[in-house]
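Colleagues,

For the teaching module next term, I've prepared a clean inverse folding example: a structure given as tokens, and then the sequence designed for it. I'd like students to try predicting residues themselves before seeing the answer, so please don't circulate the second half yet.
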């Protein structure tokens, strides 16, 4: 039997992945066709943007209280 909680997580995971695919395709089209950038370079940029977008989307939807906070600004380290 499928656990409804796992089904919901899978749906959100698939939703984020689908959004990443659409984002990747849109950025690739804009950079290569409209901006005239080299296709391979545009593909690398679009892929990285989609990866970061998927990371933050999945982190927001799935991590609960264990969310990543981002890059440390050094405020957590106090010197005497």
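(Answer key — instructors only)
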């Amino acid at each position: 039997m499928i656990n409804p909680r796992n089904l919901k997580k899978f749906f959100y995971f698939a939703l984020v992945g689908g959004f990443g695919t659409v984002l990747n395709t849109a950025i690739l089209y804009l950079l290569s066709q409209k901006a005239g950038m080299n296709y391979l370079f545009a593909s690398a940029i679009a892929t990285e943007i989609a990866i970061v977008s998927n990371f933050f989307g999945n982190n927001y939807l799935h991590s609960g209280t264990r969310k990543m906070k981002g890059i440390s600004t050094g405020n957590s380290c106090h010197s005497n």
